[in-house]
Amino acid sequence: MKQHELGPSTGARHKRKRIGRGLGSGHGRTAGKGSKGQLARAGRHIRPGFEGGQNPLIKRLPEKRGFTNIFRVEYDTINITVLNRFEADSEVTPQRFVEEGLVKSLRKPIKILGNGELLKPLTVSAHKFTQTARSKIEAAGGMVEEIDSESGTKRH
Fold it and tell me: So where are the chain's domains?
């Protein structure tokens, strides 16, 4: 066997099917594109979601657009002004918030927001504090205890 006699084995290479080359070819006339219309034309392009002019599904269901972050944590929020109802030098815990009716239950973690002024020194325990809330509680002579959501332990 010589080098010029080498070639692919029989059946390894196929000839390209030439569509639209006469009625006898088996794929002549419409060349497998059906009848006339946008889909039969050269360079056809239909954008994803196009439904032929009908109001598309993405517009019919606007509330389904976007996405929902499954890891988002929702907090029950309490403004710092509300903390003035507790006695001075007392310890304010999430359980006390439920007793006072500030939150319905302890299902959601509690976040203290810095809106308003705190007039008494308090030891406040919550799951999260804004920076302004933390500074206002400490400025009033109080203490901040952050509760770890997973373990329930307190951090100062």
Answer: 76-155
**How large is the average pLDDT for residues 45-51?**
89
The residue among 112, 143, 142, 106 whose CA lies nearest residue 129 is: 112
Task: Give the highest mean pLDDT range of 45-49, 111-115, 145-149, 150-154.
Answer: 111-115
Q: Is the pLDDT of residue 149 over 90?
A: no
Which residues does 141 contact at the CB level (< 8 Å), separation at least 6? 121
19-30 burial: b if 16+ Cβ within 10 Å, else e:
eeeeeeeeeeee
Joined together, the tokens standing for residue 95 give 């359980």
CATH number of the 76-155 domain: 3.100.10.10
